[in-house]
Amino acid sequence: MVTGGASGVGLSTAQRLAREGAKAAAEGIRASGAEALRLALDALNGESAHTLVNEAVRTAAGPS
């Protein structure tokens, strides 16, 4: 899970993880050629963080 994936260190980290074969989930990532799950997070809202983590885990686990 990478936060701040829209630019800078967050974007570079998400891209690197994707290139290395990791299932990267990035909050705020823009279309960049890296394969990553794109998520949104309101850092001031606990429910938003809970939803983000659940969606990332559900997606990474694949179909049941």
Describe this structure as you would to a colleague:
With 64 residues, the chain is α+β, with helices and mostly antiparallel strands. The protein is 44% helix and 12% strand. A two-stranded parallel ribbon has the order 1-2. The two termini are 21 Å apart.
Please outline what is shown here.
The chain is α+β, with helices and mostly antiparallel strands and 64 residues long. The chain contains two helices and two strands. Helices cover 44% and strands 12% of the residues.
Features:
alpha+beta; two-stranded parallel ribbon
Set down the secondary structure blueprint.
Elements: H1 8-19, E1 24-27, E2 36-39, H2 46-61
Rg = 11 Å
Silhouette? flat
What's the total number of strands?
2
What distance lies between the first and last C-alpha atoms, to the nearest angstrom?
21 Å
**Class inferred from helices and paired strands:** alpha+beta
Average pLDDT figure: 77
Stretches where pLDDT is under 50 for at least 5 consecutive residues are none
Query: With helices defined by DSSP (H or I, 4 residues minimum), what is the helix count?
Result: 2
SSE run = HEEH
In percent terms, what proportion of residues is strand? 5-15%
Residues in helices, as a percent range: 40-55%
